Amino acid sequence: MSPEDMPPPLAALLELTHRCPLQCPYCSNPLELDRARSELPTETWLRVLDEASSLGILQVHFSGGEPTVRRDLEELVRHARTLGLYTNLITSGAAIDRARFEALAQAGLDHVQLSIQDVDVGEAERIGGYSGAQARKLTFAAWVRESGLPLTINAVVHRQNLERIDAMIDLAVALGATRLEVAHVQYYGWALRNRAALMPSREQLDRATSAVEAARERLAGRLAIDYVVPDYHARRPKACMGGWGRQFLNITPAGKVLPCHAAETIPGLAFDSVLDRPLAEIWQESAAFRKFRGTAWMPEPCRSCDYREIDWGGCRCQALALTGSAEATDPACAFSPHHAIMGLLAETESRAPPPPFVYRRMSAPRS
Length: 367
Ligand code: SF4
Ligand code: SF4
Known about the structure:
The chain is α/β, with parallel strands linked by helices and 367 residues long. 34% of the residues lie in helices and 13% in strands. It has 13 helices and nine strands.
């Protein structure tokens, strides 16, 4: 397919900032966080929204870090809505007061995704590294429901909170959410650094899967539950980002355009910035997007596999992290010669006592 024939992405994830009052040890942000002084100014984000709309993008997700720490969020939401874009706020709910939330709703927000760390208050605040966060989150959820906006609860699950998965599902119902995303930690960024502290055992995973299946049946028509399983216990990889450079793009606080939020871990890829090139040109022509787009780059066994246009070979960042080569078949796949590594790591790490968390902080941790 020539670059001009490339269909537009469905959605853009705008990481407005890496600032966040929480410090989750599984945060998907990179270890080297962008500082406030390098964040794009309002006028550039407004132009980026114009370019996203012209490119044919339908949805924008305002994310971070914590996007509500940006004082211009209302202006960005309003502009996106004026352009006819569907607007979603992905938030911890811990850095916003009611007046601001109402201003955002007025500006035309379409949907809110609120993250929770646990249902046990002490554990939630230990995991998020922020005392007082849970009460703020619950109050925020009530504001969202009172406004009439649809609410999704994002629950990231791991070995240190999985035992309370039923209570997390009950909490999502009590908060009036219409959707719950139960996402096992994906091991990129800070989560990779904290893998041993987060890795669930096979038994924990199986119990969680049964709990989700039972809740889906019990709550059909009231609460939709999405379930993202951990690759380390899988036999087939996920179609990461719906395929590299096929459906999504990610823009960092400083303006780099990435095919996925962890792509900067891959050495040798140069990422274009919205400060230097129009978004459409980056989507169609950027070397980083073209590197793993489609199937031509694939080695065996992916190259001749019937699933190659279903999972697109899985995750490049995970392939790099576990095999040393971003070109390799994702080791989550049972056909990968490296597949046994994942099962062994999961088994070993989940059986050992969890090490202390390395919390997400602005200064990168020493390894
Ligand atoms: S995962 Fe936690 S630390 Fe990372 S942006 Fe979300 S709330 Fe903040
Ligand atoms: S060999 Fe490649 S294309 Fe086939 S299932 Fe595994 S990762 Fe997917």
